[in-house]
Amino acid sequence: MRPDPATISDSELLARIAGGDEQAIAALYDRHAGMLLALALRIVRDRSDAEDVVHDAFVTVGDRAELYVNDRGTAVAWLVTLVRNLSIDRNRRRARRGAIEREVLVHEPSESGRASSDSPELQVLGAMEAARVREALASLPPAQRTTLELTFFSGLSYPEIAKRENLPLGTIKSRAARAILALRAALVGEPRS
Q1: Residues 90 and 39 in one domain
Q2: What element of type H or E holds 188?
Q3: Which of 45, 55, 117, 171 has the fewest Cβ atoms within 10 angstroms?
Q4: What is the pLDDT of residue 94?
Q5: In a domain, 54, yes or no
Q6: Backbone angles phi, psi at 186, to 5 degrees
Q7: Structural domains of the chain, count
Q8: Would 131 be classed as within a structural domain?
């Protein structure tokens, strides 16, 4: 008898996804889709686009799960990076389409009035996960927190942050690396090194 996918780790789920286990991808989606949707929405600022980003991310997970290396970071960090990159790509494509797309969108119905399709339970879980992330971010030193916020929520690259903050690129990269380690430790409950 196979263990329930809801009781195994994210990295084990990724290993099962790499082996073609569809229940594993559903379990990983159920665990993290709410948090990933909130991240995508913060970057792309459109619910429909954010939903598309999360969908694309899980299609990519299905195709590339075998590329995940547990020693390089948590599965959640891998998913967050994937959604962040897809969100930034979507924003860049949208910017390139420019005036033509804006003209077409004028005639499209608004998505803002649509109610969330998530169940109340999923909304509560997503809110709880978001609160954990906010609390972990708040525990970081201000410089590290700012670097992560500019990277993940504003979609700026490290060179863009270095230019904006008037700091060397190496400083921004090391600040981001320390912040990610501290954030991971705070979310997992590990002591900081």
Answers
A1: yes
A2: helix 169-188
A3: 117
A4: 78
A5: yes
A6: -65, -40
A7: 2
A8: no
b vs e for 106-139, b when ≥16 Cβ sit within 10 Å of the residue's Cβ? eeeeeeeeeeeeeeeeeeebbeebeeebeebbee
Give the pTM. Answer: 0.56
Write the pLDDT tens digit of every residue in 63-89.
Answer: 999 999 888 889 999 999 999 999 998
Alpha helices for 45-119 (secondary structure H)? 47-64, 75-105
Question: Who's near 60: CB < 8 A, 6+ residues apart?
Answer: 82, 86
Range of the domain at 33: 5-118
Residue at token pair 């509560």 = 124
Cβ-based neighbour number of residue 18 at 10 Å: 17
Distance of CA 82 to the CA centre of its chain: 6
Q: Which helix (H) or strand (E) holds 161?
A: helix 158-165
Distance in angstroms between the alpha carbons of the first and the last residue of the chain: 40
Q: Cα 5 vs. chain centroid, distance in angstroms?
A: 21
Higher pLDDT pick, 36 / 98: 36
| Chain position carrying tokens 């889709």 | 33
CA distance 151 to 125: 25
pLDDT tier, 166 (very low <50, low <70, confident <90, very high otherwise): very high
For 163, other C-beta atoms within 10 Å of its C-beta total 13
